[in-house]
Write the structure tokens for this entry.
Amino acid sequence: MTARLREAFERAAGEKRAALVAYLTFGDPNVQTSLDVVEAVAKAGADVIELGVPYSDPSADGPSIQRAMERALDRGASLPGALDAVAELRRRGVETPIVLFGYYNPIFVMGVERFAERAHAAGIDAVLTVDLPIDEIAELATPLAAKGVAVIPLVAPTSTPARIARLAPFNAPFVYYISLTGVTGSKAAAPVDPARIQMIRDAAQAPVAVGFGIRTPADAARFAAVADGVVVGTALVDQVAGGDASGAPARVAELVAALSRALGR
Amino acid sequence: MSTADEIARLVEPTGGRFGEFGGQYVAETLMPAIGELEVAWRAARSDPDFWSEVDALLEDYVGRPSRLYRAARLSAEVGAQVFLKREDLNHTGAHKINNCIGQAVLARRMGKRRLIAETGAGQHGVATATVAALFALPCEIYMGAEDVVRQSLNVERMRLLGATVHPVESGTRTLKDAMNEALRDWVTNVGDTFYLIGSVAGPHPYPWMVRDLQSVIGREAMAQIYAAVGRMPDALVACVGGGSNAAGLFAPFVDDENVKLVGVEAAGDGVETGRHAATLTAGRVGVLHGSKSYVLTHEDDERMGQIAHAHSISAGLDYPGVGPEHAAWKASGRATYLARTDDQALAALERLARTEGILCALETAHAIAALDEVAASVGKDGIIIVGLSGRGDKDMVTVAQRRSTPGQVP
């Protein structure tokens, strides 16, 4: 489903703004409410939804997303549950492209072929696995590609030009650029060099979304000026946790709407 | 033969893997750092200057070579010729220091200015804090909050040595969570920080590098057994958590198919109870902490791919993963893996104390507990070398509590 993701970025570019990629953890604060949150976020203007599959050992995530994943696991959230949830969202009429975010072990244990089949059937557009660098990603990307599901490669501040040059064959719908060395939500995003974004864009022949440390509409506006997309995660997860479960969809949607308005160029 | 020559004879991973196991399953941010580490390790392991520095420290500071002791009374009890490779006599009381010395020398060569490490029982944390003091490097240790309470004496040792100990409150608050937190630190401070992993786990090149550094155990043992009896042993036995002392003992003997290699995992309350840490015995292939290997992981729909809780009376074996080279040895049949329960380990600890006057660590006791079975397979003239990986002082509170209330894990 590379096309639907590409279209989301092209539509945003046509409207002279960056695309908003909104991260949420499946199952937080509970399975049913998290579906309502995603639906509300889609209606509030998110261009892409990144849905996190909770994992017992999220070694690339900071405290907010760690706790969200723990809450979700306590409520019985799982990889099969996340796949069912996406299918349910599609039945509810949510057309926003969905990127499944997670760690590799649950996918590996399910079996990559079976996962690819179920991801395709559920209506998942792409998969982002934080512990599958481009050196290891073929074992997942190949079976996914056979089902028309893309992978989203990550580029870090530490990635060398030689590594960035290796992105071309992935035909990625977009590339996720991590704005800082660290875990999610840990500190304020550092300024990003527009020339580096351009280098990644040229190497991957794909739009570049920037994430990590982007919390407020003002942060988002700063990055919208240089990147094709802006990823916001921890700030939304904090809204989920910041009050009654029943109020979570409205709280998150309000922030998404404000972020969305800030992305014009 | 020089150390560099001996090391050159050990198996190298191919494409970062031992068979299908190993690899580099880590965040992109860390890839350049582990690439840099791999280049540095490849250069160091063939550099005689690196080894002369390491070997001098192992001799003068650690007290190597460690003794290979013929355990006559234990031999008579089990019905085989048993030799104990006395890593418990090393400075800091276990084999962990061998690896820490080597990695600290490498960190200094690479110009890294800060050491971080994870620890479970605290033995690797103490060994890391020790070399940090020796090399005048700042040192931060991540330790599960539960282990901080269970192993308070080792926390105090690390602090006395000048390290900062961070209790980790996430997840199960044990070793695997400490490793997650150390990875988070590394990804944040990757420029100046050296992550000193304590076992043959983690992404390539760690399993390879740590095994090379621990191979001093097996390289010495081979020379010592020849000096003592004039021939190769029939079997090697060592406990396996992550598997560094076993890998270090086994690696130089791998080419000699006549030498049986036996790893002993922690069966906790019994493998059938689900409360165990017997990853190779009862786990399956998965991906944890940067490598593909055997892991303890759930397979049912509700918890698919979540890492399972490990359980062992011995904190050093209480880990739901295992080094990828052990997975490869299991897959090829080159090594055999057994499992022994908490109670069997405790009985073995008492047996070694009674017969030989040696108080071993609870980790090591799992290897002792497998001796009857291994002895039966080699016969009374058969020669067995046991990796006596550490001393038991750290475990005396646990042992005392367990002896006063059998069946209860403190």
In short: The mean pLDDT of chain B is 96. The longest helix of chain B spans residues 31-45. The CA atoms of residues 26 and 290 of chain B lie 5 Å apart.
